[in-house]
Amino acid sequence: MTSDHSIWASLPVPTFIIDPEDRISDVNSAGEGFLNASRKSVVGNPVWDLLAVDAPLEEAFLRARRQSTPLFVNDVDVGSGNRPPLQCAMQIAPLMGYPGSMIMTISPRELAGRMTLGNSVKSAAQSAIGMAEMLAHEIKNPLAGITGAAQLLSMNISQQDLELTDLIVAETRRIVKLLEQVEQFGNLSVPDFKPFNIHDVLDRARRSALLGFGAHMKIIEDYDPSLPLAYGDPDQFLQVILNLLKNASEAADPKGGIIRLRTYFEHSFRLRRSDGSGHSLPLQVEIIDDGPGLPDKIRSDIFDPFVSGRENGTGLGLALVSKIISDHDGWVSAESVPGRTVFCLSLRRAPKEEHSKENT
Ligand SMILES: Nc1ncnc2c1ncn2[C@@H]1O[C@H](COP(=O)(O)OP(=O)(O)OP(=O)(O)O)[C@@H](O)[C@H]1O
Ligand SMILES: [Mg+2]
Fold it and tell me: 127 with 303: CB under 8 angstroms?
């Protein structure tokens, strides 16, 4: 017979016992980990002081206590201490034999809930891109003519009219830049698969970000040093990381923000296709920023081309990320609440024989 104590200590989800005065009367070790505090320092404290929940939970909680019924809450953001909130599901039930006391479990939605935002840019979007690419090519030539003509005109006109020709030149330049981005999308070749070290690529991306668009950011490395080699095209992967770092830098306060580059190994993560085939994607790379989060209006479409929440955005950055990762048979997902936006990439590891080839 198992003892209550061993069940309590083994529960893998953060679990709390709450007394009739809404103070924590016990917490299991997963709960200590969640709060990042010891049981001793937690017990006796009002539960809602330690856990910040973004839903109007207290009334439902009171009702559950009064009527002795369980309460299930999905998709709440739960923050604790100075950690940014995590999306969680909560289960609350009256504790049998202890009138007024409740037991509460919190399950953070990590890998299990990661399939939220899709990454299929391959179908309809692909033809939109093909179209845009063709247009880009056709429009660039006449634009060069327009810029040239405006520059010629500007040579002998009044100061006032000069403003207008300057405007023509500046705006056509902006369009050319946009078109070049569209073309870059179309030029993407099939990945040149080889084993590569993810951390080397992350380092290169980090250094180039800090010298340019990300100069106002702090980029923290949180690497699993034992991560095996990945299998893919390192140059294309660099492009992916740069796009994600750029977005995080652009979303951040101009005074700065923090980006965390995290890698870890998740043995159980597999991609399963609708035809039943599948393969393992054990290498995980997360780009985490503490900016304002994805705008609500576009959050379900961010991987589609030409979807942008920024004034001058083309909306191609994440479409390119999605295309490259899907060409690599990988997976990309995003999770975002204000203060914590995570883009997670899941990649294949290099086949064993490729490892040994590398070493010889
Ligand atoms: N880390 C992030 N934090 C907040 N919002 C983000 C983040 N990453 C992306 N977004 C939102 O998603 C939108 C789409 O991103 P995407 O990179 O595809 O296009 P873009 O940055 O607008 O333009 P481009 O990358 O082509 O210059 C962005 O405009 C922005 O609103
Ligand atoms: Mg972008």
Answer: no
CA-to-CA dists, residue 300 to 26, 116, 246, angstroms: 39, 9, 20
Which residue's alpha carbon is at the smallest distance from atom 13 of ligand 1? 308
Q: Which of 137, 152, 238 is nearest to 182 (CA)?
A: 137
209 CA → ligand 2 middle, Å: 13
Nearest CA to ligand 1 atom 1: 248
Structure tokens at 220: 């923290």
Q: How many residues does the chain have?
A: 360
The verdict on the CB of residue 130 being under 6 Å from ligand 1 is no
Report whether residue 214 contacts ligand 1, using a CB cutoff of 6 Å. Answer: no
Query: What are residue 335's phi and psi, to 5 degrees?
Result: -140, 135
d(Cα 128, Cα 314) in Å, to the nearest integer? 14
Pocket of ligand 1 contains residue 309 by CB under 6 Å: yes
Spatial CA neighbour of 290 closest among 244, 257, 263: 257
Encode the chain (360 residues) as per-residue pLDDT tens digits. 677 888 888 888 889 999 999 999 999 988 888 888 889 989 999 988 888 887 777 778 888 898 888 888 887 888 876 666 777 888 999 998 898 999 999 987 754 444 434 444 444 556 666 777 778 878 888 888 999 999 999 998 998 899 999 999 999 988 888 888 777 777 777 889 999 999 999 999 999 999 999 999 999 999 999 999 999 999 999 999 999 999 999 999 999 999 999 999 988 887 766 566 678 899 999 999 999 999 999 988 899 888 999 988 888 899 889 889 988 989 999 999 999 999 999 999 999 865 555 444
**Dist CA 259 CA 32 (whole Å):** 26
> Global pTM?
0.63
Taking every pair of Cα atoms in the chain, the longest distance, rounded to a whole number of angstroms, is: 97
What whole-number distance in Å separates Cα of residue 267 and Cα of residue 359? 24
Q: Which atom of ligand 1 is nearest to the CA of 316?
A: 26
What does DSSP assign to residue 50?
A: H
Whether 251 is in the pocket of ligand 1, judged by its Cβ within 6 Å, is yes
